Amino acid sequence: METNRLTKDEIFKWCSIPKEELLNQEGRKVKLEVRENREKLMVDLGNLMAEEVIEHNKRGMLTKWVLPAGPTDEYDTFTRRVNEERISLKNLWIFHMDEFLDWEGRPYPVEDSYESLEGTMNACFYGRIDDELNVPKEQRIWPRINDMDYADELCEKMGGIDTVWAGIGAAGLVAFNEAPHSYCRHISVEEYAQSKTRIVDLNEDTIVALAHRSFGACTDRVPPKSITIGFKLMLNAKRFIYMVATGAWKQTICRILMFSEPTVDYPVTIIPRYVADVTLYSTEETLDHPLSHETKGW
């Protein structure tokens, strides 16, 4: 069983690389696209999304995506172009990453609230697209507690995903696929890569991060569980696009993603082993690690 564990010296070494040297740095596992700020980054990503749909429509192809309910800035540009340019989304299939659950493992009401990611997407994505252009409701695939195999089986039947558009967490989560924290159970990289849709408890570091971001560090305000698609579905993708513009929160995980071998301690590192086309889109601030400015020894 593969048990790759990173050392602090490895992490310090990657974090000490000046951002100006990242584009030409040997050993980088993913492609890198850098923009000066979040606004510019998200506009470019929204345009990239629109261009993929336009190209597939011209060729009479389906477009199959995995989408997150955050970040959502890129949807501003995408939905505007869809409406202005009359881009049909009738051949777009969307596999949504995850949904919050309460402490008893039940979903919250679907509404425009923090607890409902489906409600968030209805408000910031589907609800902003003209009806005659919009994604048919049956092509909006959410992980459901009453049929956890549906998304995985449908994805396999459809021949996989074209693009996964993903944010990542500070500890390397993708969707709510987090590092497994257990003294009693050890999961290998290969096992993790085969993970399917499942109900998970949110790791405490994720709850703290979400609470700090939105609720003044009131951890009880963050839902404790979620249902998430697994890596098996996402690793069927032709390409991964990471969208990371959160500044200091993500400076270290971006370095780990770029240079680490696969490890379940940071699940995001597993993806480049299985998907050939992986690109990190990020900002100058997010890639400018403070350890790269240190003059004293570690």
TrEMBL record:
<dbReference type="InterPro" id="IPR037171">
    <property type="entry name" value="NagB/RpiA_transferase-like"/>
</dbReference>
<dbReference type="InterPro" id="IPR052960">
    <property type="entry name" value="GlcN6P_deaminase-like"/>
</dbReference>
<keyword id="KW-0413">Isomerase</keyword>
<protein>
    <submittedName>
        <fullName>Glucosamine-6-phosphate isomerase</fullName>
    </submittedName>
</protein>
<dbReference type="GO" id="GO:0016853">
    <property type="term" value="F:isomerase activity"/>
</dbReference>
